[in-house]
Amino acid sequence: MAKRDLISIHDLSREEVETLFELATEMKADPGLFANALVGKSLAMIFQKSSTRTRVSFEVGMTQLGGHALFLSSNDIQIGRGETISDTAHVLARFVDCIMARTFAHQDVVDLARFASVPVINGLSDDLHPCQALADFLTLREAFGSDLSGRKIAYVGDGNNVAHSLLFGAAKAGMNISIASPRGFEVATNYLELASEDAAAAGVQIELTESPVEAVSGASAVYTDVWASMGQEEEAASRLEAFRGFQVDGALMAEARPEAIFLHCLPAHRGEEVSAEVADGPQSRIFDQAENRMHAQKALLVWLIQSV
């Protein structure tokens, strides 16, 4: 069987996403059943960007599955000294069973998948964050059941890699999605067009607005992310001004459905994109969401590696 990669949730069918959710749910409920699922298998983890959740969740996840994970920063391997992506992919594929990469340029992870003969997982790029979205919708299923049809998720903030993957994830999960961003910080047109195709096929709605209240109205989940992502530190001051009025606070959460939950991919800057009362309040599921990174990724690792 031909190897599969996870570069974008757009590349998965709704049935495949459902399979991953069901497998992740089973693994979370009884991890011991999968303790030997990847015995003798190795995962290479390439990090151009530092990380807490991505590194720990993949490394511990591989250990729980009986496998082994190798942490490779740009300074640890020759890619940091000018070796081509192609050569790196070919060489690593001779040693390991899967490659996860957390990169700046999205093309880097695309090229790794193109040249590697083993599955490649996008652990995050400047464009997309598919592993996060899988964990997000797993968390939503735990909160509201496996049938999310008719519900809405609202994202308030920068139209970044997380927003792009939420667009794709919503269509695959059967949820409507509304995104509120300030002018000039909207989601990228190319990803919006692809997500709109997925949404039309799934019969769900995508709404874009500059009004956080409009986006959050009637939502079952309210999501935000930092206003300045890694690599945008020099823009922090200007972004703070541009995003004024986009904080998710108690008043904004009150516009959502009574049972609505709050989500954030973390790290969170309390007092900026979210108030402490929301981040640490009873509607918050941010730590369940963080834990679910591991369960969703364990399912993904087994699904990809065992399919080769």
Summarize the structure.
This protein is of the alpha/beta class and 308 residues long. The protein contains 12 helices and 9 strands. It is globular and about 55 Å long.
Describe the structure.
The protein has 308 residues and is an alpha/beta fold. The protein folds into two domains: 9-129 and 292-307, Aspartate/ornithine carbamoyltransferase (Rossmann fold, 3-Layer(aba) Sandwich); 132-289, Rossmann fold, CATH 3.40.50. The protein has helices spanning 14-29, 53-64, 85-95, 106-115, 130-144, 161-173, 189-202, 212-216, 236-242, 250-253, 276-279, 286-307; strands spanning 42-47, 68-73, 98-102, 120-124, 152-156, 176-180, 206-209, 221-224, 261-264. The strands form two sheets. It has a five-stranded parallel β-sheet. Strands 2-1-3-4 form a four-stranded parallel β-sheet, with helices on both faces. Strand 3, helix 4 and strand 4 (120-124) form a beta-alpha-beta unit. The longest helix is centred in the C-terminal third of the chain and has 22 residues, at 286-307. The chain is globular.
